[in-house]
Amino acid sequence: MLRVAVVGSGPSGCYTAQNLVQLDPTVRVDVLDRLPCPFGLVRYGVAPDHEKIKSLQGNLRTVLEHERVRFLGGVRVGGPGGLPVARLRELYHAVVYCVGAATDRRLGIPGEELPGSWSATEFVSWYSAHPDAVDAGFVRDARSAVVIGVGNVAVDVARMLARGVAELSPTDMPQAALTALARSRIREVHVVGRRGPSQARFTTKELRELGGLPDTEVMVEPGELALDPACADPSALPAAQRRNVEVLRGWGERRGRGPARRIRLRFFLRPVQLLDDGGRVGAVVFERTEPDGLGGVRGTGRYETVEAQLVLRSVGYRGVPLEGLPFDEESGTVPHEAGRVLHGCFDVPGDYVAGWIKRGPTGVIGTNRPDAKETVTSLLADAPVLVRREVPADPVAALRSAGVEPVEWTGWQAIERAEAALGARLGRSVVKLADWDSLLAAARAGAGRTAGRTAGRTAVGTES
For residues 160 and 47, what is the distance between their CA atoms, to the nearest angstrom? Predict the structure, then answer.
């Protein structure tokens, strides 16, 4: 019987497990995650007001509840205090790493380290209740914010900064983040890209949502639209970009409703410096760019300064090395051939990758389906060789002997109950637990109750 560990319980990990059990009727899959909660970026990266996308958790749940799939949370692989990759290889016939792209790309400009300058991921983690997030006072004392980047994450954080408490209260946002955003004095949000409107990476659906925010005006500079040759006649653009340009042109024709908040979508501006104002960021200096005729942009030597006490960079993600696996520094991925990890010039059966750590931070959630299937196809082709190696009958016992106490599915269910109870106490729906201590305490309490009920049933059976 083939035993496989999948490291990571986000979409790529769950789709990998799903393909394994669908294509092999005997395989046993353990899905490991360093967090006590499953679902990865669907839980901790999707904006709390995007209920439709968050509902994908239901599909992923079905995978993790399969009789031949087991969720093991709270298991760190690699790094300080983590289970070494070499030890994991001893416990399973094969290991599939679905660890995503865990860090952000940086701007590499002066002032980037100033207080008030953050990655968008850090901000998203905070309002999504990631247990590693810190309450850094993101919006405290800020009147204006700059979001650098024109993708969906940039649009998400701009929307969160502009939403009011009435729209955020029904979500599962942690209470501390909700309170802070409700008290925010930010009235202007600039979303800035170095290239033109036709090259922006957001989807039209996400873009249009900005125009539906209560008491918020979206503004686009007509002069910046005019700089993009494709905006004059967007008919030759691919459908997605054409729709974006049409929406942006519509906003460029509107002015002056005097709302409480404004979102300004800016283009052809490249950040060159963050300015210090009393020990924290106070403004961003941008250089005006222009099309270079080759699909990119070039600097013009003209500059513009935009006031901001909060700066969030959203310029892409990057994978990080995992000790024991090869790593391509340029692409931020693990070298592979159809999902088989390449150690030097050779693929070594037993180590596999799927998701962003395999292909880079590209695509949408659904892109992980064919990506995972390709990797699983390679793994199952190797299975006759893989199963020749002896592995423990139950890897969990080996984990416990190494001092690792996994959070199993019953522990996760206990966390869900605790979050529902917290929401009820606060007069809201479900409210996420936002720190390690609360999550682990809830999981342990649930596991204890489950063990007690099991022991009670055994005792009754014995007496009868």
Answer: 8
